[in-house]
Structures are given as C-alpha cells and as structure tokens.
Amino acid sequence: MEKQSFANDFKRRIKEVKSTRWIRFGVVSLLFLLWVVWMRNWWLAVFELLLFDIYITGYIPFTWWKKSKSKTVRSLMSWVDAIVYALILVYFIFSFIGQNYQIPSSSLEKTLLTGDYLWVNKFVYGPRVPITPVHFPLVHNTIFGHKSYLDKPSNEYRRLKGLRNVEEGDIVVFNFPAGDTVATRFEETPQYYELLVKQYGRDAVHTNKEVFGDVIYRPVDRRQNFVKRCVALPGQRLKIVEDTIYIDGEAREFPKNVQFNYLYSTSSPLTEADLKELGIAAGDLSEIEPASASRTNLKPFLPNSPDNARVYISPLTADMIARMQESGKMLDHIKFNKLVTYFEGNDFTSMVFPYGENGDWTLSNYGGEKGLLIPAKGTTIELTPDAWTIYQRAIRNYEGHSDAYLDPVTNRVMIDGKPADTYTFALDYYWMMGDNRDNSQDSRFWGFVPEDHIVGTPMIVLASFDRERSLFDGKIRFDRILRSANPDK
After folding, report:
1. 223 CA to centre of own chain
2. Whose CA, among 55, 75, 185, 270, lies 20 to 30 Å from 254?
3. What are phi and psi of 46, to 5 degrees?
4. Cα(100)–Cα(105) distance, rounded to whole angstroms?
5. In angstroms, rounded to a whole number, what is the distance separating the alpha carbons of residues 231 and 448?
6. Is the pTM of this model over 0.85?
7. Residue 149's Cα: distance from chain center in Å?
8. How many helices (H) and strands (E) does the chain have?
9. DSSP secondary structure letters along 200-266
C-alpha cells in the first residue's frame, strides 16, 4: 500500500471528523482562548494546537487503549482517562473560579460557625495566577505527610481582573502572612514560627526536630488558609478604643453577631439545654468555682451577684445577653477585657503586633492616638525607628527586601545595603479581624495582610456540622445549608 503524504493524511483525518466533534472542539477552543485573553499570556495560545489534535486530527495517540484487545486494559484506562480529565477540570475550577473551605476555628462565630463548609469565590477579587502551578488539586500543601506541590517552576505574583476590590466589612479568605516560615509540627496550631522563636529561641526550634519538626519555607499560595473580616483598607488609619473600631476617626458599627468574652453570674447552673438554646459551645465555657480564691477576688466586679450565684466566662453576643437577662437567668456581667489588670504577671501588650513595642496597645485599645496607617501601594512613609518597628515585616518579608535592618549605631534603616529615610510600598495591605473578638488570632497579633495573600470571599455555606453533637442530636445544621456566608454585606 502506497504511503500517504502528510498533506493527504491530514485532509483525510479532517474529512472523517464528525460534526459533533467539531462542535465540541469549538466550545472548548472558545473557552480556552477566552482564558488565554484573561491570563494576558499569548504564549499559552500554542496549546490550541494540542486541543486541535486531541479533538480533530488525533496524531498523538491519547486514546490508544480504546483499540486494545484486552478488556481489562480498556476498562482500567477508561477509569484513568476519566480521573485525569476530572483532576484537570478541578485544577482549573479551584485555581480560577472558586473552592470549598472548612471553618476550623471559632474566630468568626457567630457569623460563621466551626464546622461550616463554605464555597469561596476567587473570581470576585480576581484569582491569582498560581504561584506554584504544579500541585495536586485536591489538597492544600501536604499529602501523605509530604509537600503536595513543587517549588519550581514558580510564577511571580499576578492577579487577574475580577469584579471588584476587597471592601470594608467583607469576610475574606487569605493565606496566613506569618506562615512563610513554619515548624511543621506546629503549622496547624496558633503557635506560629515567630512566637516559637520568641518563646524557645531560634536554636531550639531549628535543632529539636522531635518537638518542632522541620523548619521549612512555604510559598505564598501554600501558606495556611485563614478567614476573617476585613475591617480596614489600604491607606486608612485604624484605631480601636474600648473594642470600638475607628477608621479615619469615624466609629464603625459592630457586626450583627460580634461577640466578646464576658464574666457573668447566673441565678442557676447553665444546663446542656441552656447552652444549646443560647448557642454557647461547651468548650468555650469556663466556670469559676464558688470556693476558689479567684471567685473571692472577682466578687467586686459582679456587685449584683449573691454568694451562691454561678459564675462563668464565655463568649457572648448582645442578643445572647439580652435573652439571658429577659429570662432572669443572668444576674450581672462585665467584659472580660476590663479585668486584664487583675491578672498580674500577664504582659498583654507583648502579645499584640508589633509585640509590645508600642507602649500600652492591647486587643481592645489599639493603634495609638493617631491610629495605625494601613499601607497602600504607592504610599511613602518616613522610616523612623518607630515606623521601622511597625512596617519592617512588610518591607522585609512581603516586599522582598530581606537585607533590610535598623543600624544600631546610626539608628537609620538600611535597605539593600543603602541608608533609607523613606520607603514607598509596592503592595496594598489590609487589616483583618474576627467577629469573636477575644478568641481570634488576627491582625492584632501578626499585622498586615498583603494583597498577594488574598484568596477570595466566602459566598455560601455548603454544609455545616456541629462537632459537639451526634448525628441524631443536631450534628447537621440544616438551617445553615445554602445560607449567605457574609450576612452583614
């Protein structure tokens, strides 16, 4: 049989393609080209040739297994083929459209509950081009105890065009900014690397692997996911006075479900039914024993409480307090943060960003007289020693000037080997806080969230499971399914 020329073989293959195959190729090709335009990377258009071969010409034998005489091979490879297509689809959806996310902690209760499964919209702010593009799509940063991604190849930070920017009051999912360097055995705990070094010393953290694990670096998009509410935008000044947030000097209303820790007394013990009706998690409730020294010392703070009253500490919303008062259950209450001076020996100012370097800043009174400036792209600041204390991590860790420090001799900031009196930011930054204000590890502890760490915003609650209840005792929260994940917006 005479061998066909490439041109004749190409024409033959084109003629044999069914019209339905052409339609499928046209739809996929259009979607692909729209994606290339969105990515603004025309080199990707080269892969259009691969799509043409997959759907039309078939020179690359991707479907060789369909002609196999072995039924086992055909059956096995059909499953492999389906799984590969599914993983590719999931990869693109999770990278550019949205992703499911579980609420692991109580920092946003009662707006979002521990055990909520959310659909996070990445499209609304514009998705990031994957910084670590080679990764397994169904996990975040580990799989079977090992990294689920390759460090190389990697991309520089770039965000595609979205529908809008982050707005004040948005609930936002982002990568943990202080999670760049991690001790692997503490990565999923509140004790992040900088706190471990501060508590135990750098040498101990790096050498004692049995306790701390390996110390590794995580790329931006592989750092732990956090979810908080954005309370301040780039260029704004933030100040907190007695728990009230002021932005550029104007007070902001509390979110509807904001809650604080309270010391309170009740006319009778809180039962399991009471906790369920009020929405107090058993793990969040502490009781002060009647005969304890603490109970005696705390008595002046609850003047309306008889000696036989039960005294508790737990997070409460304004609505929960009102319901307990109306029922006669609550006798007296006081915000727990008003008692901090009672707890001698606890240096509360050392807990907050920038770690005790700004006098009397606390979780409830923060930002100083003028308020804390949230950096905006293009904003220039004077690099005084005080400013360096606040913005050094942004300059060093987030904007890539690792060779930056405050010279102890000249008391001047050195950046990349040169003295610098001012600095102009290259990124926008945000300030994130939880609605469960006294039980939220947020920006008050570790500072600013750079724009390249923003993942997306939760849209709806897909499902919700109460970890403290059994399957037949309200474990599935049916009333939360398909509810808005950001009801204050």
Report:
1. 9
2. 270
3. -60, -30
4. 16
5. 11
6. yes
7. 19
8. 12, 24
9. H-HHHHHH-HHHH--EEE--GGGSPEEEEEEEE-TT-EEEEETTEEEETTEE-PPPTT-EEEEEEEE
